[in-house]
Amino acid sequence: MTTPAETIGIGASSDTAFVEFRHELFAAGLLHPTSVDGVYGKSAAYERIVEGVLASVTRLGVGRFEAVHFPPVLARSTFDRTGYLSSFPDLMGSLHVFEGNDRAHTELVRRYEADGDWSEILKPAEVVVCSAACHALYPLCTGRLPEAGRWFEIQGYCFRHEPSPDPTRMQTFRMHELVCVGDPDMAVTHRDSGLADGLRMLRDLGLEMDAVPANDPFFGRLGTILANTQLEEALKIEGVTPIYPTEKPTAIMSANYAQDHFGSSFSIETASGNVAHSSCVAFGIDRITLALLHAHGLDPYRWPPEVTDRLWR
Length: 313
Ligand code: ATP
Ligand code: ZN
Prior knowledge:
- This protein has 313 residues and is α+β, with helices and mostly antiparallel strands.
- Helices cover 36% and strands 24% of the residues.
- A hairpin with an 8-residue loop joins strand 1 and strand 2 (41-42).
- The longest helix has 21 residues, at 184-204.
């Protein structure tokens, strides 16, 4: 029988570990392929794990963090202020829409029917696709913060244009973040305690976790300098777990100190009138789900009770 995976040219015969893992996920019906790498349909069992992981992150922040769920699109004006375009032009995604008249519509359809480039007729929309769950949050903080700063639990879908056959590198994935906006001390303390809490939560779910200094995948030659500075100043630490024996362990969470980057772009002031600093502890919900499937097997209904009791209590 030809499986959907084989139809789009992915066979179990490949010796690459991630192609094999993806094939297993397809064969178990946990992920469903589309014609594009990194975009998948997900089964009910997969989504049940997602919900358990989301709830586990929520429990870390309960009572202290204000929960905000954002949609997968972000105001273009907000995106422009995040600086994402300068640092990661290769990862961002822009949305375009049709706003023409009847004549433009005729031309659009003509090009479409002739297999031509109809997208040239579209115009940029007032929204882009989200690159990080926390971006939509900063305009809410513009102005003066309360004495204790502000603490948020953010959930959202992200898009990054990094098509890959590795199922842990998706083009759209869920990110759940615990964010602090306040004094530098508060931001650093949150980054470090959030990392420790996150690592403990993931270890309690049976994952082997390590914390390693990391850098963002900044674009171009200038990007190398930014990445080195980020490493030297230890601004970003990733929580990694082994999934592929021949590859580096996979980052399933990260803890980032953004210094005054968002505070100055979005005019956020601390109670004492200084530019606010911020930090994020970000959980890659789809990657955690895949790491759990890898660690405990592809049938979540047969996972050890000490794991499922925590996920679905
Ligand atoms: P990577 O170095 O793996 O590309 P990143 O440093 O760009 O990740 P962050 O911006 O720190 O990732 O995002 C927070 C978390 O979101 C990551 O730790 C990871 O778990 C998850 N994540 C990032 N990119 C992807 C992706 N393409 N597919 C699935 N999850 C992702
Ligand atoms: Zn963030």
